[in-house]
Amino acid sequence: MKSEHRKMIPVMEPDLSQLEEDYLLESMRSGWISSIGTFIGKFEEGFADFCDVSYAVSVSNGTCALHLALAAAGVGPGDEVIIPSLTFIATAAAVRHSGATPVFADCEKDIGTIAPAAVANAVTNKTKAVICVHLYGHPVDMDQIQAIVSDTGVIVIEDAAEAHGALYKDRRIGSLGNLATFSFYGNKIMTTGEGGMVTTNCPNLHQKLRLLRDHAMDPNRRYWHTEVGFNFRLTNLQAAIGCAQLERAQEIRAAKDRVFSQYETKLSQRNELTINPSRPWAAPSPWLVCIVQNTSSSEVSAKVVQDQLRLHSVDSRPYFIPIHHMPPYQDFKVVDQEGRPGAPISESLSLRGLNLPSSTKLESADIDRITELLCDIFDKNF
Ligand SMILES: *Cc1c(COP(=O)(O)O)cnc(C)c1O
């Protein structure tokens, strides 16, 4: 393989059209550029419909969404919150900022979502919440999580930052826990630049989310604050982009499905790897194309694959690193599916997983080139 000099194919690019531009200009010209304006309510209502849920509260980003959800649920110092070790750092940071103690659970093999068996082993009488991260667009087995926590008062929060539009047993993610959080960062399935959302079916939690998002100001008395709140508001400018993305959700989804199925056609025959691993009960959302090397003695390290792809101007991402290894998180409990300390499946998956270019802008010829490169890399190394 010769290396070539061409423009690097990125892992993700936002899918923006004339509609986003039109709405953005409309919001700017209205003068309502902060967090009051007609697009905010429209975006929240439209997103609640999209998730088949009663309420949606927009926020500045997905990390704030998690922080606000925890605060609204009353999570704080002395509480334990069970989270997966294999996730983006924001899930753990939000728990720390709430003052609660994270407890890390190992994941399921292949799909990498939090393992119900590990959650069952991690529950104590201090457990206040569990955060189910729908990792790389694949839903968590929510019925099993609900069965573990039923009658315990433990709050279930979905971190759906990577899974807009995914279905779990024909139900929309974002409607399956007490609360769910979303991100609209530029590389997510739906974007507003920066932005986030919290969804819930509970009227009391909804009230609490709105109160805390806006400095906990008494709705009936201006500048009277009943508790310590936040400024986690989204701007009308961002909501305008969000409204356009919502209107185009099906179009974007169809383009993503085209990309994913072309990769699957080209790579599903390779027995060294599994592409977009999933379970029969899940209809994952196509966020990032995932390839997971099957365990074998002749594994090519993900780093080698990445370096080779980069030589040919193709960017890729390694899987997340298990969080319990990182300095601020090393002192907390880690529990595997048998109840032992550690997260062996997360460790292994983290080394074997890679995300490939996944944007709707990819042309069919790009995907052909990427898959051929990959096949070459594996042929040479096995
Ligand atoms: C992106 C992401 C977040 C954080 O969202 P931001 O909008 O970037 O703050 C939280 N959790 C997961 C799993 C994510 O992928």
Summarize this structure as a short list of keywords or feature phrases.
382 residues, alpha/beta, 8-stranded mixed β-sheet, 4-stranded antiparallel β-sheet, 12 helices, 15 strands, globular, binds pyridoxal-5'-phosphate
Brief synopsis:
With 382 residues, the chain is an alpha/beta fold.
The H-and-E topology, N to C, reads as HHEHEHEHEHEEEEEHHHEEEHEEHEH
Which percent range fits the helix content?
25-40%
The share of residues in extended strands comes to: 15-25%
Distinct ligand kinds: pyridoxal-5'-phosphate
Radius of gyration: 21 Å
- Choose one word for the global shape: globular
**Which segments are poorly predicted (pLDDT under 50) over 5 or more consecutive residues?**
none
**Quick one: biggest sheet?**
8 strands, mixed
Biggest β-sheet: strands ordered side by side in the sheet: 1-9-8-5-4-2-3-14
Helix/strand-derived category reads alpha/beta
Termini separation: 16 Å
- Could you tell me the mean pLDDT? 95
Number of strands: 15
Number of helices: 12
3D architecture notes:
The chain is an alpha/beta fold. It has 12 helices and 15 strands. The protein has helices spanning 18-29, 38-51, 62-72, 89-98, 116-122, 142-149, 203-213, 236-247, 249-267, 302-311, 344-352, 364-381; strands at 55-59, 80-84, 101-105, 127-133, 155-159, 167-168, 171-172, 179-183, 196-200, 273-275, 282-283, 289-293, 317-318, 334-335, 353-356. The strands form 3 sheets. An 8-stranded mixed sheet has the order 1-9-8-5-4-2-3-14, sandwiched between helices. A 4-stranded antiparallel sheet has the order 10-12-15-13. A 3-stranded antiparallel sheet has the order 7-6-11, with no helix packed on it. Strand 6 and strand 7 form a beta hairpin. The two termini are 16 Å apart. The site of pyridoxal-5'-phosphate (PLP) has 14 residues, from helix 3 and helix 4.
